[in-house]
Amino acid sequence: MAVKLIVFLCVIVISKGVDIGSLKLDQVLILSRHNVRTPLTDSLEKYTPKPWPKWNESAGILTQKGALLEGIMGKYISEWLDNEDLIEGCPEQKEVLIYANTKSRTIATAQAFVDSAFQNCNVTVRHLEDLTVFDPVFLPIVHNNSEIFSNQIGEEMRAKIKDLNLTESYSELAKILKIEEADICKSLYLCDLNIAQTEVVLEVGEEPNVSGPLFIGNAIVDAFIMSYYEGMPLEDVAWGQIQTPEQWELLAKISKENQNVRFNLTLGSKDIAGPLIKYMYNIFEDKSPKFTMLVGHDSNLNSVIRALEFKPFKLSEQFEPYPIGGKLMFQKWVDSTNEYLKIEYLYPSTSQLRNAEILSLSHPPKKVLLELKDCKTDSNGFCLFSDFMKLNVY
Ligand SMILES: *[C@@H]1O[C@H](CO)[C@@H](O)[C@H](O)[C@H]1NC(C)=O
Ligand SMILES: *[C@@H]1O[C@H](CO)[C@@H](O)[C@H](O)[C@H]1NC(C)=O
Ligand SMILES: *[C@@H]1O[C@H](CO)[C@@H](O)[C@H](O)[C@H]1NC(C)=O
Ligand SMILES: *[C@@H]1O[C@H](CO)[C@@H](O)[C@H](O)[C@H]1NC(C)=O
Ligand SMILES: *[C@@H]1O[C@H](CO)[C@@H](O)[C@H](O)[C@H]1NC(C)=O
Ligand SMILES: *[C@@H]1O[C@H](CO)[C@@H](O)[C@H](O)[C@H]1NC(C)=O
Question: What is the CB-side half-sphere exposure of residue 28 using CA atoms within 13 A?
């Protein structure tokens, strides 16, 4: 307590603008990606003559390790909530909302979080009852079905594909796969990822999608990344052939660009993320619950970030542009006169994931301060909450 008071007094003296010493955490909303899952496609055999490692679960399911990692993150966040005096012990029913998309991996992630962050408390994970449909709040599709709009999106995606230069990435991948000995080459004559064309796939009611090398490359690199995070022996991660950070970077570029082409869209992202952003703003308007976690997908984080117009940022020590288990954390802080917003990207580093490092206030996950283009922040990363609320055009 004495230490806290001294720190508090020092902070008052040195800080300009917002007096951060007198700020109190008032509300938190997290938009989270699910944790480590099995690869999304279970038909990767045709891309290589080499045997793929075996996974215990079918495609796209949260793994046991994924649940463990989410629990570690949950524990850290509950420590932080307690430290900031927002939630101590078991919260009341109305104080928290944990809401997941209907996919098994998102529900299981939310459950793992709750079991650890609110252990032995009566906190229920909410989700649509019908698990056979993708929850419309999280569904990353284009809603405006006008031909003009669809054409605009198609054009932007094609322009992004045209600007891509993944030559080195595809070459590296082809070498690791020995693609010239794979079925895809022998029977489908796709032997060179640098010659085949990536095409835009836009269908009403479906996610903006691509086919060709960008789709294939992303599916394969995703399988490598997940096996690395899962903690498989290195000889089972891309058959032991990724040996340098430069190789990882080349391969990860394919995942980054897949996300960039499909969801980082000027007009499209505002439409795609509309229902989710509307849902988020309702919670801020209601000033309740105190703590919310929404569990969705990288496509949700990507389209929300683009739609709300964040300034560019870099997430270090990560392969993925929207890291597995990563959390976009909107925090409302108040003092006696004002309300402020601070946004951080909270995510585990590659080594924290692979080694399942225990996280705590003294060994935290990575935290990157983010800024919105239209909510001017001070040197501590706070902007006026009222300015943030004005960005609600949904
Ligand atoms: C599969 O399950 C077994 C037993 O639970 C576990 O020891 C092993 O690590 C799991 N393998 C993978 C790849 O998850
Ligand atoms: C737990 O919460 C549910 C509502 O979500 C309520 O129906 C139930 O009575 C609660 N159980 C306990 C033990 O408090
Ligand atoms: C759909 O997009 C078209 C073309 O950009 C636009 O004119 C129209 O207003 C949009 N409709 C809705 C409901 O937003
Ligand atoms: C793509 O990048 C490589 C280097 O990585 C370069 O040699 C090549 O000229 C580039 N291709 C185009 C079309 O810009
Ligand atoms: C995207 O397209 C690929 C290749 O055509 C297909 O296999 C995949 O299922 C599609 N994904 C989605 C989410 O629509
Ligand atoms: C998103 O697209 C913009 C250009 O429209 C680009 O400047 C930015 O780097 C892209 N972001 C990512 C993460 O790819």
Answer: 24
Tell me the CATH class for 147-269. Answer: alpha beta
User: Are the C-beta atoms of residues 273 and 337 closer than 8 Å to each other?
Assistant: no
Give backbone dihedrals phi and psi of 255, rounded to 5 degrees, phi first: -65, -45
Share of the chain above pLDDT 90, in %: 93
Q: Is 187 exposed, middle or buried (0-12, 13-18, 19+ CB in 10 A)?
A: exposed
Q: Which pLDDT score is estimated for 15?
A: 43
Beta bridge partners of 375: 372
Distance CA 231, CA 222 (A): 14
CA angle centred on 382, ends 379 and 384, rounded to 5°? 130
Strands (E), the chain: 24-33, 96-100, 125-126, 199-201, 209-211, 291-296, 327-334, 339-347, 366-370, 383-384
Answer yes or no: is the C-beta of 167 below 6 A from any ligand 4 atom.
yes
User: Ligand 4 within 6 A of 165 CB?
Assistant: yes
Nearest CA to ligand 3 atom 3: 149
pLDDT at 174 over 70: yes
Q: Which residues of 317-337 are buried (b: 16+ CB within 10 A; e: fewer)?
A: ebbbbbbbbbbbbbbbbeeee
Q: Among candidates 359, 292, 361, 290, which has minimal Cα distance to 71?
A: 359
| Mean predicted lDDT score pLDDT of the chain | 95
Which of 47, 200, 201 for mutating ligand 5's site (highest number of atoms within 8 Å of CB)?
201
Note whether 222 and 39 are within 8 A (CB). yes
φ, ψ of residue 253 in degrees (nearest 5): -60, -30
Q: How far apart are CA 304 and CA 285, in angstroms?
A: 18
Domain locations along the chain: 147-269, 312-394
pTM of the full predicted structure?
0.94
